[in-house]
Structure formats: C-alpha cells, structure tokens
C-alpha cells in the first residue's frame, strides 16, 4: 500500500498540538478551582488593603514624634474603647493662627482614626474672648458627649463650662489653663486636663540662646503673646528666669506682641531701633518670631541675632532650614490632638485618668532640624 505522507504529517501535527494544549492545562487529577477560594482570596486582599490604609498615616510618622506619642499613650494607659461613635466637640482659639489651623486638622484626622465624630470650632481672632464664649455656649446646646476647650485667657470660658457641667457634658481643658478657682466659684469643674509645660518651653528656648551667645553674652528681648494668657505668661517666665540666671545676659525689653504678626513686627522694629546691638530675641510663638526676623531683615540687623520661637509650625520649619530662624520648641500637633481625644473618651467611658497629662517637648535648631523631616 502506498503511504500517503501528507496525511501522516498532518496527523502528527494534530497530535503535537493536542499535547501542547494538555501541557498548558491543569495536571491530571488536579481538582478544579473552587469559586469560593477566589472569593476568600479577594476578601483577604481587601482586608489587607484596608489595613494598609489605616496604618498609612502612622507608618510614616517622624521617629521623634513617635517617641512623643508613646510617652503620651503611657500616661493615658489603659486605652479606652475605640470606634464607639462618640460625639466630641472641640473649641480652639482661632483659625487666624496657623498653629490652630494645624490643630484643627489634627483633631479631624484623629477623629477618623479613633472612629468618633469630631466638630472643631473657633473664635474669629486671637483676642475675641466674647465670641469664643458665645461659640462654647452654642456647642453646649448641641449635647456633645464631651468638649475639649482651649481658652483665649483663663476666665473667658468659665460661664460656658459651668453650663456644660450642668448638662452632664464632660469638659477637657487642652493647653492654656482655664482657672479652676473661677470655675469653682461659678459652681463648675474640669473633667480632665492635657497641656504642655509652658515655662519649660520658654526655658528651653532661652537655654539655647544662652548657649549660642557663649561667654560673650549679650542683650536679649522677649516678645510675649497676649498679656494674661497662660501660654504667654508661662513662656515669658521660663525664658526670663534663664536669662536672669546668666551673668552675661541683659534683658533689655519684654513687650507683648499679642500673637499677631503685624504687632510683633512693629515691636521688633522698635526694639532693634532702641537697641541696635541686640544679640537675641525670644518670641512666645513662631508667628511672632518670623515677624521679628522680617523686621530685623528690613532694618539690616538680622545678621548675628539669634531668634527663637515656639510651636514649630511648618513655616518655622522651613525658616530654620533656610537660616531665617535659629530654632523653635516643638511638640507634635498630630500626637497632642489625638491624645486629647483619647483623654476625652476615657472620661466619657468612666475610666480613671491622671490629674494632668503633659506632652513631651523637643528643641529644634539649625543643627538638628534634619531630624524633624515629616514632622506633624
């Protein structure tokens, strides 16, 4: 019989194609893929993605800020129950100051992280004590579980806090102190307090100035905030005590800048005009320190003068890196606001709490500013 080679070749080709197709498939005897396995895998991936989103805000935290958070969480241990949906009101001083703008953002981020509803309100300006009290009164009418309040001065919020007490709303004092004595006279009280050591802030800045002045010493000035405000008085006292203890340092001026950039600019201009050989300026917040730097630059006197502030706001951070400022006293706004909300939760849930919770501090200077990249 005559072999038809074309037909044989075609048959061999078909066999080879079938073998190749079998090799690309599942091995013999392998179980078919269960659609349920695909769903389970998808759920696991979704959970991991959600966890990644939850931790994205903490994994990139500056190491120094993380240390502050750990120190604060130790003071607040054990933690309260989270994700309970509590409704917390927050009253800050004003959104006209970048520090308090950052505080507002910090509270809102922390509220999302902790699973609670947070509403932040503020007075129009740094010194509008009446409007701040009116804002507190409106918050008391909303029946929050707790209110975290930072007063413009020690007495302006006392009537509103007494009303909150009557309604059973817990009140936490953050930062500048509310007068406990005035509250007692009004029949009110505070349920908790979280703050920083304002005198220590002033002392840290002044110690850095004295160290930088060295043996030659020099003339120094202090630009305060609003007279009577707790943070202004504390920072001024801390700095003054350090300067007065230094034999080679002479305080030539202490004047209020009212936390205002324009006022502080004028104060610094007057100081440098009266004391052209001034060696250092300490301002009780960064806004005024930046204004003082601008004033001295305009007067042609910036070179060689040490200028320190407090709060380490983003603008101050950049100014220190650029050499415009010499330093600032820092505490993490992101950590501070989160700790305040945790303290409020502990009070609402009936936990025992410390009499006062203190935020750690850090001195930022031109020498170590690189350590504070990513600071919040």
Report strand %: 15-25%
**Any idea how many domains?**
2
Ends distance: 91 Å
- The number of distinct helices, counting runs of at least 4 residues, comes to 13
- Structural Rg: 30 Å
| CATH fold-level label of the largest domain | Rossmann fold
What is the SS-derived class? alpha/beta
Mean pLDDT: 88
Largest sheet: 6 strands, parallel
CATH architecture name of the largest domain: 3-Layer(aba) Sandwich
- CATH top level of the largest domain is Alpha Beta
Question: Which word captures the global form?
Answer: globular
Number of strands: 12
Taking strands numbered 1, 2, ... along the chain, how are they ordered across the largest sheet? 2-1-3-4-5-11
CATH superfamily of the largest domain: Response regulator
Question: Which spans of ≥5 residues are poorly predicted at pLDDT below 50?
Answer: 1-33, 35-58
| Helix content, binned percent | 40-55%
N-to-C order of helices and strands: HHHEHEHEHEHEHEHEHEHEHEHEE
Reconstruct the topology from this structure:
Elements: H1 5-24, H2 35-59, H3 63-75, E1 87-94, H4 98-114, E2 117-123, H5 129-140, E3 146-149, H6 158-167, E4 170-174, H7 180-185, E5 192-195, H8 198-213, E6 218-224, H9 230-245, E7 249-256, H10 261-274, E8 280-283, H11 286-298, E9 306-310, H12 314-322, E10 327-330, H13 333-348, E11 357-358, E12 362-365
Parallel strand pairs: 1-2, 1-3, 3-4, 4-5, 5-11, 6-7, 6-8, 8-9, 9-10
Antiparallel strand pairs: 10-12
Helix pairs in contact: 4-13, 5-6, 8-9, 10-11
């Amino acid at each position: 019989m005559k072999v038809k080679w074309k037909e044989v070749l075609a048959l061999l080709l078909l066999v080879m194609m079938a073998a190749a197709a079998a090799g690309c498939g599942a091995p013999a005897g392998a179980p078919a893929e269960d659609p349920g396995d695909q769903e389970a895998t998808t759920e696991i991936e979704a959970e991991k993605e959600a966890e990644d989103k939850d931790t994205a805000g903490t994994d990139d935290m500056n190491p120094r800020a993380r240390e502050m958070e750990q120190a604060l969480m130790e003071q607040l241990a054990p933690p309260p129950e989270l994700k309970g949906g509590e409704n917390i009101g927050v009253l800050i001083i004003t959104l006209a100051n970048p520090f308090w703008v950052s505080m507002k953002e910090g509270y809102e981020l922390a509220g999302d992280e902790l699973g609670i509803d947070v509403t932040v309100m503020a007075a129009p300006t740094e010194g509008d004590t009446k409007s701040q009290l009116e804002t507190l009164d409106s918050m008391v009418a909303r029946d929050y579980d707790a209110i975290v309040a930072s007063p413009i001065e020690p007495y302006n919020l006392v009537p509103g806090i007494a009303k909150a007490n009557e309604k059973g709303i817990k009140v936490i004092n953050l930062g500048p102190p509310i007068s406990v004595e005035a509250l007692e006279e009004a029949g009110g009280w505070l349920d908790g307090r979280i703050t920083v050591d304002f005198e220590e802030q002033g002392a840290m800045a002044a110690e850095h100035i004295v160290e930088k002045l060295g043996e030659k010493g020099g003339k120094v000035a202090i630009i305060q905030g609003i007279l009577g405000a707790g943070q202004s008085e504390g920072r001024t006292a801390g700095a003054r005590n350090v300067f007065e203890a230094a034999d080679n340092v002479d305080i030539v001026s202490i004047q209020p800048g009212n936390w205002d950039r324009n006022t502080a600019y004028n104060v610094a201009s007057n100081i440098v005009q009266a004391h052209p050989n001034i060696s250092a300026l300490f301002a009780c917040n960064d806004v005024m320190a930046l204004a003082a730097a601008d004033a001295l630059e305009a007067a042609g006197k910036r070179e060689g003068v040490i200028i320190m502030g407090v709060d380490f706001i983003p603008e101050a951070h950049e100014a220190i890196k650029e050499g415009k400022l010499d330093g600032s006293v820092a505490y993490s706004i992101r950590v501070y606001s989160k700790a305040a909300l945790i303290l409020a939760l502990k009070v609402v849930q009936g936990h025992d709490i410390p009499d006062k919770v203190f935020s750690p501090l850090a001195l930022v200077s031109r020498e170590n500013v690189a350590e504070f990249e990513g600071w919040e």
